Amino acid sequence: MPSTRRVKVLATALAIAVCTILYLLKHSSSQDFYSRTVAALDTKQVSDQEVAQKLQDIKDAAKAQEPVVPTTPQKPIAASSEDGKLIKMKVPAYAEEQDSEIPTIGKANDDARSVAGRKKMLKGGETKDLHLGKGVPMAVDKEKEKYPAGKTVEKEEKVESKEDHEVEMELNSILKKSPIIIFSKSYCPFSAKAKRILLEKYTIVPAPYVVELDTHLLGPGLQAALAKGTGRRTVPNVLVSGRSIGGGDDIEALDAGRGLIKKLKGMAGKRIMEAKLTEEQ
User: Fold this and answer.
1) Which of 126, 153, 248, 268 could be cross-linked to 193 through a Cys-Cys bond (beta carbons 3.0 to 4.6 Å apart)?
2) Dist. CA 250–CA 244, nearest whole Å
3) How far is CA 34 from the centre of its chain?
4) Residue 216, burial from CB neighbour count under 10 angstroms (0-12, 13-18, 19+)
C-alpha cells in the first residue's frame, strides 16, 4: 500500500496537469475569438468602402447627364419706357434669331404686342402666328389681365377699427332685443308711419324694438352697417329676424293687403308669440 506522502505528491501533480490543460484550452479559445473578430471588422471596412465608391460613381454619372446651357453672348438692346427715356435690356442672341421683332414697353397705340418666339398677341385676346400669318383665337387669362406682368400689386388688408368693432357689437346687441327691429329717425314721416302701424295698429308680442339713428351715439355707423348688410340705407328700415322687409311704404302695402301678420310670422316663426290687429282685442 503506497504511503500518504506519495499519494499527496500524485494528487498535486494531477491537479497541476488539469490546470495546465484548462489554461491551454481557454487561451486557444480566446485567440480564436480574437482572430474571428478582427476578420469580421476587416470585412465590414471593405464593404463600407465599396458602398462609398458606388455612391461616388452614381454622382459622377448624374453630373455627366446634366444638360449643357448654351453660353451665347448677350446683346444689349434698347426699349422705350413709359416716361419716354431709353432703357437697356439684354436679350440672348439665339432669341433674336428666332424672332426679329423686339417687345416694346409703354406704347399705348400699338395694335399688338410682339412676343419673342412664333406668336404675336393682338387686341381682343387673339394671337397671330408670325410664320403662317394666321390669327388664332386665344383665351385671355383674367388673372394676368388683373395683375399685369411686371407690375407689383399690393393687396390692401382691411383692418377693423375700434369704431367698426363697437358698431358691430351694438348691432348684434340690438338684434337680440326683439325679432322685429325698426331703425328709424325721429323727424322722418315715413318712419312715423311704420311705427304707427307696427306699434299702434297691431299688437305684437314681443313688441318691435325701435332704434332712433339720429339720437343714437353710433347712429351713422349703424346706418352704414345696415346699408352694407341689407342694401338699404334709407329709413325706416324694418328688420325681421335680421332680414329687411322694407320701409314705410312697404309696411303700409303689407298692411293694406292683409299680409303683414303672415309675413311677420313666416319670417320670425315661433319667436313671435302673438300678432293681431289691435281692434280685434
Assistant:
1) 248
2) 11
3) 65
4) middle
Between helix 219-230 and helix 162-175 the angle, nearest 10°, is 70
**Tens place of pLDDT for every residue, the chain, 281 residues?**
567 877 888 888 888 888 888 877 766 666 666 677 767 766 766 667 777 887 888 878 777 776 555 555 555 544 444 444 455 555 454 444 444 444 444 444 444 444 444 444 544 445 545 444 555 454 445 544 555 555 554 555 556 788 899 999 999 999 999 999 999 999 999 999 999 999 999 999 999 999 999 999 999 999 999 999 999 999 999 999 999 999 999 999 999 999 999 999 999 999 999 999 986 54
Cis omega before residue 2 (within 30°)? no
Place of cell 411686371: 150
183: helix, coil or strand?
Answer: strand
| Cα radius of gyration (the chain) | 48
Query: 267 near 240, Cβ under 8 Å?
Result: yes
Q: What angle do CA 269, 271, 272 make, to 5 degrees?
A: 80
Cell of 260: 303683414
C-alpha cell at 77: 438692346
Q: Using alpha carbons, select from 153, 119, 163, 111 the residue that is nearest to residue 137.
A: 119
Consecutive H or E run containing 257? none
Q: What is the DSSP string of 124-168?
A: TTEEEETTT--EEE----HHHHHS-TT--PPPPPPPPPHHHHHHH
Tell me the residue ranges of DSSP E strands in 18-85: 74-80
* Residue 194 Cα distances to 33, 188, 197, 212, 269, angstroms: 107, 10, 5, 13, 21
Contact 94, 70 (CB under 8 A): yes
* Cell, residue 92: 440672348
